[in-house]
Design brief:
The structure holds two protein chains of two kinds. By secondary structure, chain A is mostly helical. Chain A has twelve helices and two strands. Classes of the chains: A mainly alpha, B mainly alpha.
């Protein structure tokens, strides 16, 4: 029994990790007032970049760095379109997703059916991993898990307690007043979009070199969109993103747990998506004004305009 | 030296056409660069795409075949996007239409003649698509749930539901264990223009939809309400426009016409339900760009629909001849969309260099 609990909990954390990475990035981006619907595409780019680099170098850390760099680079497109050209953020985000899915499948074509020698292994933290039960659950995880937690905490701290965080948040709330304070709104937004892209790229790397050891076309399987929903669920707070991401990780694991009970696998596969809808519904039924969404989320800002 | 950006005072139709042509050319150039980066000969690939779709009679017929769903869905999306309702769920609204239409065709088809059953199937398909579009619309107006997320989640849910049907309760007895439904009866199958796969009933329906929705957008009070809701929801409220009602109608139309496309695909092309990805090769997503390229003008959707249908057909051609993955076409879609956005910017702004 103990083993089952530990295994379910471990798998929940494993499934939630890419979601947490992506959500932290999207929270940073949306806090600055930019909606980025390109996460799904950027994740795919990250996944393929990490796989290819790890495949040739046998070094997963280089793979992760490649994924982050690729995610950042492709996100510049969204930054340019939504900040410099003040275009519709929904449309340019969708364009980024299409581009990301397309480029990743073209780049990954020669690697379909090839596998890495091994997945990125777990990293047991000395002493802590010896704690009964909890140690095995929390401190015998992949490096991605630790990084996701640390980065989420760092993002929370920076957004809440530092001058940079205040600048980012006020850019999302009132870009005009922020600009009047001498803050470069465009620079902040560019920065947040690109950093967010790095997070999505890393989430993709998680899928291709740690969650599995393969590149499969479409392996992001809608996780990028779940990230966009989780960002709302987290009410734009990285701390709540931690809870949300692992809750959803649990739903992914539930699919496999319920399958032996004879429930149609198709209905189980619906669970994460129905879960997302239910969560949004729960938030929506509450007072949506208290959501605390960045006031100017999705609105372009044109310097010198009223 | 300084770059100055000012708003362009007047935009002539000639400017618009120029911006469009230039965006597409620049987009194709960048697509070429992407191909080059992955070791694909860009000139060969791009020529192959357009030769495959517009360069032969066979190709052109295929292009028209694929333009049918794109035009139907695209024109529905122009209405939704005008109201700033970001319906990303047309893919599953199409599938829901296909499910409803197939049910009617399989169950009632054997007892009814074609002139009765075919309109009934399209009606059922419209209802199926409309229901699937109304759910997120209701969520949005009632609970302020972001429609981008809800329509997308509905896509995944519907695809799983369809798969459940074809591997489970609807699995055909005549299909040797394959996860397909049985063939539709003879009376429920749409006629084709001879020597092609063009199911002309749906084609006529698509053109009619364009004309009707075009008239609604430009000539009726409802069309005006849609525009106001999109441009300024606050003003809409003061003008006495019922946001709740109008949004629901918009999504019933947008989802419903996508449902029509679903019936056309099943009754005109496949004749049975199969996996979601074979019923619709991403038409719901491509139609987003179709609507955007048409500048949300229902009439222009015919042209942009044929253009992107051509890219889909050409995409199939290079998939076969160059062995590229199916998603390569997404590079076309994404890049062209980015350049259309840029073209818009240069159309609206004048950029001059001062010394």
């Amino acid at each position: 029994m103990e083993d089952i609990i530990v295994s379910v909990a471990q798998r929940t954390l494993i499934a939630g990790t890419p979601l947490l990475l992506g959500t932290t990035g999207e929270v940073i981006c949306e806090r600055s007032g930019i909606l980025n619907l390109g996460v799904e595409g950027v994740m795919a780019i990250g996944a393929v970049a990490a796989f290819i680099v790890t495949f040739y170098t046998q070094n997963p850390w280089l793979g992760i760095m490649a994924a982050i760099a690729a995610g950042m680079m492709i996100s510049i497109i969204h930054a340019f379109a939504s900040v410099s050209l003040q275009s519709n953020q929904v449309v340019s985000g969708l364009a980024l997703t299409m581009l990301g899915l397309g480029i990743s499948s073209l780049a990954g074509k020669p690697y379909v059916g090839k596998a890495l020698d091994e997945k990125m292994g777990t990293l047991a933290i000395p002493f802590l991993s010896d704690i009964p039960i909890l140690g095995r659950i929390f401190f015998d995880q992949t490096p991605f898990f630790y990084m996701a937690i640390v980065l989420a905490l760092a993002a929370w701290f920076i957004l809440s307690y530092t001058e940079l965080g205040i600048k980012i948040r006020s850019t999302g709330e009132n870009p005009k007043a922020t600009e009047a304070q001498g803050v470069n709104v465009s620079l902040i937004r560019y920065g947040c979009i690109i950093v967010g892209g790095g997070f999505s790229g890393m989430a993709g790397a998680n899928l291709s070199i740690s969650y599995s050891k393969l590149w499969i076309e479409g392996m992001t399987a809608g996780r990028g969109w779940i990230v966009v929903a989780l960002t709302i669920f987290a009410l734009w707070n990285p701390m709540r993103a931690v809870v949300g991401a692992f809750l959803f990780g649990g739903i992914f694991v539930l699919q496999y747990l319920l399958q032996p009970l004879g429930i149609s696998p198709n209905f189980l596969a619906m669970l994460p998506y129905i879960g997302t809808l239910l969560v949004l519904l729960m938030i929506g039924i509450g007072d949506s004004k208290k959501l605390n969404a960045p006031a100017m989320l999705g609105e372009s800002y044109k310097r010198g305009e009223r | 030296m300084k770059i100055r950006i000012t708003d362009r005072a007047k935009i002539t139709p000639r400017d618009q056409v120029l911006a469009l042509v230039f965006s597409i050319m620049a987009g194709l150039f960048v697509i070429g660069l992407i191909f080059l980066a992955f070791g694909v000969n860009p000139v060969f690939a791009i020529t192959k795409i357009f030769a495959g779709s517009f360069g032969s009679l066979y190709g052109f017929k295929e292009t028209i075949t694929k333009a049918i769903p794109l035009i139907l869905i695209g024109v529905g999306l122009t209405i939704a996007f005008r109201a700033k309702f970001w319906n990303i769920g047309a893919e599953s609204q199409l599938l829901m239409g296909a499910i409803f239409g197939t049910w009617v065709g399989l169950n009632w088809g054997p007892h009814l003649p074609a002139p009765v059953i075919i309109p009934l199937m399209f009606l059922a398909g419209f209802i199926g698509g409309a229901i699937w579009g109304l759910i997120p619309a209701f969520f949005k107006v009632k609970f302020a749930i972001n429609e981008v997320i809800s329509t997308l989640m509905m896509n995944y849910i519907c695809a799983e539901f369809l798969t459940f049907l074809i591997v489970g309760p609807w699995k055909g007895k005549t299909k040797f264990g394959f996860p397909y439904t049985d063939d539709l009866p003879e009376s429920a199958i749409l006629g084709l223009i001879s020597g092609s796969r063009i199911h002309y009933v749906t084609l006529i329906l698509a053109v009619l939809t364009v004309v009707i929705l075009g008239m609604i957008v430009y000539k009726t009070r409802f069309g005006y309400e849609v525009r106001v809701i999109g441009e300024n929801p606050e003003a809409a409220r003061y003008a006495g426009i019922d946001f709740f009602r109008t949004t629901l109608i918009i999504m019933a139309i947008s989802g419903g016409v996508a449902g029509l496309a679903g019936v056309g695909e099943v009754a005109g092309i496949h004749h049975y339900l199969s996996y979601p990805a074979s019923i619709s090769s991403g038409y719901g997503f491509t139609a987003i760009i179709v609507a955007w390229l048409a500048k949300l003008n229902p009439f222009f959707v015919i042209v942009s629909g044929i253009f992107f249908a051509g890219i889909l057909v050409g995409g199939d051609a290079i998939q076969i001849s160059l062995g590229l993955p199916a998603a390569t076409v997404e590079i076309f879609n994404g890049t062209l969309l980015v350049f259309l956005i840029m073209g818009d910017y240069f159309l609206k702004h004048k950029i001059s260099i001062e010394r």
